[in-house]
Amino acid sequence: MLALLALAASALSACTPAPEPTPTPTAAFASEEEAFAAAEEVYRAYNDALNAHRTGDDDADPYDYLTGKILDSELKTAQELEATGIHIVGPTKVVGFEGRVSDHSQSVARVVANVCLDITEARAIDDQGTDVTAADRSDTYTISVELTGAADHLLISEYEVAPGETC
Residue 58 pLDDT > 60, yes or no? Predict the structure, then answer.
């Protein structure tokens, strides 16, 4: 009986498949330059969608370029502006893009850049049609932007005004 059990155990162990090899992660981008170029392309597409959305283009959805906390924050800001009757008119222009940090060697990349924006023509208008744009605001400013994702699907995950940075 014991010999039969040993024989059955050895037969069963011979049928056990070998473990699958673990795939090696593929880098999201081949180089830092490629990662920066992709990040700039995504940010410019976001800005274009934002400008088109402001002019009434319902097919343009700037939220398609956002993820995580910044998406939540932008949706909340849009709700607050709508509740107060304020809307933004006029374009925002990207006048500079400088890649700063690129962690592109993993399958999910992280890219940080400074973006110089010209908001000269962008105005805040209330529900009475009155321009309520702050008189003392700067017409250009720099934001620090972080994008994350795969090479074919980078999204803006964070941004904030970059203190001390000038365009």
Answer: yes
| Residue 92, pLDDT score | 97
CATH number of the domain that residue 93 is part of:
3.10.450.240
Give the pLDDT confidence of 104-125 residue by residue, as tens digits.
777 889 999 999 999 999 999 9
Q: What gap in Å lies between CA 108 and CA 25, rounded to an integer? A: 9
Tell me whether residue 32 is in a domain. yes
Calculate mean pLDDT across residues 119-148: 96
Residue 12 lies in a domain: no
Q: Residue 43 class from Cβ within 10 Å (0-12 exposed, 13-18 middle, 19+ buried)?
A: buried
Q: Could you tell me if residue 157 is inside a domain? A: yes
The residues facing 102 across adjacent strands are 111
The DSSP result for 56-123, as a single string, is T-TT--GGGGB-HHHHHHHHHHHHHHHHHT-EEES--EEEEEEEEEEE-SSSSEEEEEEEEEE-TT-E
